Amino acid sequence: MKYNLYPQFKILLVDDEVAFLRSMSLTLERQGYNNLMTCSDPSLVPSLMEKEDVGLVLLDLTMPRISGQKVLSWLKEEYPNVCVIIISGVNQVDSAVECVKQGAFDYFVKTSDQNQILDGLKRAIHTQELTLENQALRSQILSNELERPDIFSKIITSDQVMWSVFRYIESIASTRQPVLISGESGVGKELIANVIHELSNCSGPLVSVNVAGVDDNVFADTLFGHSRGAFTGADKTRLGLVEKAANGTLFLDEIGDLSLASQIKLLRLLQEGEYYPVGSDKPKRMEARIVVATHQKLEELQAEGKFRKDLFFRLKTHMVNIPPLRERLADLPLLIDHFIKSACEEMNKPALTAPKSLSVSLSQYTFPGNARELKALVYDAVSQSTSNKLNCAPFEPLLNKDNHLVFTESQVQFPTNTQLPTLSNMADLLVEEAMKRASNNQSLAARMLGISQPALSKRLKNMKESQHRN
Ligand SMILES: Nc1ncnc2c1ncn2[C@@H]1O[C@H](COP(=O)(O)OP(=O)(O)OP(=O)(O)O)[C@@H](O)[C@H]1O
Question: Residue positions of the PTM 4-aspartylphosphate (predicted)?
Fold first, then answer.
């Protein structure tokens, strides 16, 4: 099995003291940082920097022939984006501070506790990862194109917001930081999790688990596993999903439903990168990337005290929000065609076509179940079709006899203690909303409002003129 290297860039350790290089490499490897290179001769630094993709250098200050300070000024001139951490002797703190002024990220005294150096390195790696992501994001936004469009081919969309989500996902593909995917039920969050996993190029599997309603003990057992004899009935050691997802991705769905006790366990896992199988006092390192999803609004849950602030803070570093289907109506015809095709294939039916008016009529429906709801309707329609035309009967309950959405009282409410809007105010608001939903497509908006396109155009002109006058 391919062993994944982490971080995505090399960490170069430079010190003439071979024993220090060895012990520091071991400490780092134990913490999961295995993309390392050591160098005991500072004169070799330039050739190593040229050959390898180095992102972070741990540099000793006192070395024979070439001092660390000299190496630092060379690095800052030739490789200004590379992060440098200085390791100094006890009596060299002044020079170390000077190095920070010259652009070193931080300094540590060699005799300090290795954990302190490790914390500094972790901070530097995180900062470097964010810098690289920022650069990737900038170039993605500027280029407006995807580097690996094939991986996104299962997600059908022409929506600009979705494309910017895709570009963002590409730019964070290689970090090991968690990713939070939010969006209403059925918008395609699991599809996005699959893409994040594929883009990461990790050799391990994608392991998915729905954590809604899972009690805290079951959560710990499922994620961390248990040792033999951990509790009555635990007659065998059980591997947890974190371990099963090693070198891959662990996808936790419905994270908003996680109990507060389990939230603490997840937070610790993310912060420390370590966990204890139930009944074991030997910690294990997490080698998987965590992706979580929720259809709930975590900000609101947090305000109600149902979701931990610190966990939300940790998760939202990389956050993507998938817009609901009603906000990307241009996707409707594409998705209808896509689902018809896949349903025909699965049901062994000859190709079917949908009437053009179907997507226009459906554009007035709010799709609370999003793409999943549309998929179920289309599959139902395909299964009921006997000719080469799609049988639209399953869609009829959503629309009235004029092919317009049936409004219920609960969808339009006017609080009794407020003044009613005027008819003209209401009409303007409706027109604005229809234009927004139709992405400024006047024919589509006109169909939604039940008026002709010229009538809408006239209304828009009048609205513009009156805004001008005011
Ligand atoms: N843009 C899309 N293109 C193609 N299929 C889609 C798209 N969005 C969603 N689907 C399909 O709709 C169904 C629901 O998608 P998915 O399970 O990813 O949604 P979800 O947001 O994870 O839902 P939930 O919140 O209920 O878990 C799946 O069958 C998926 O393949």
Answer: 60
pLDDT for 357 equals: 80
Question: Ligand 1 centroid vs 375 CA: distance in angstroms?
Answer: 9
CA-nearest residue for atom 23, ligand 1, is 186
Print the domain residue range for 390. 326-398
Phi, psi of 180 (to 5 degrees): -110, 125
CATH number of the domain that residue 49 is part of: 3.40.50.2300
Identify whether the C-beta of residue 281 lies closer than 8 Å to the C-beta of residue 138: no
CA distances from 28 to 12, 133, 167, 287, 328 (A): 12, 23, 32, 14, 46
132 residue type, one letter: L
Judge if 331 and 318 occupy the same domain. Answer: no
d(CA 67, CA 253): 52
Query: CB–CB of 59/95 below 8 Å?
Result: no
Question: For residues 332 and 371, what is the distance between their CA atoms, to the nearest angstrom?
Answer: 9
Cα 447 to middle of ligand 1, angstroms: 28
pLDDT, block means (10 residues), the chain with 470 residues:
74 94 92 92 95 95 90 91 89 84 89 84 90 79 82 93 91 87 96 95 93 92 90 86 95 95 94 90 91 95 93 91 92 94 93 86 87 94 90 81 47 68 85 81 78 88 85
Nearest-angstrom CA–CA distance, 73 and 82: 12
Residues 126 and 275 in one domain: no
Q: Which residues line ligand 1 (CB under 6 A)?
A: 155-157, 183, 185-191, 253, 295, 338, 371-372, 375
Statement: the pTM of the whole predicted model exceeds 0.90? no
Tell me what pLDDT residue 1 has: 36
Q: What is the reported pLDDT for 3? A: 52
CATH number for the domain including 225? 3.40.50.300
Report the alpha-carbon distance of residue 465 to residue 453 in Å, rounded: 18
How many domains are there within the chain? 4
Q: Say whether the ipTM exceeds 0.90.
A: yes
Please tell me the distance from the alpha carbon of residue 384 to that of residue 378, in angstroms, as a whole number. Answer: 10
Instruction: Give CA–CA dist 449/468, Å, rounded.
Output: 24
Give the whole-angstrom CA distance, residue 162 versus residue 177.
Answer: 21
The dihedral sign for the CA sequence 270, 272, 274, 279: negative
pLDDT at 90: 73
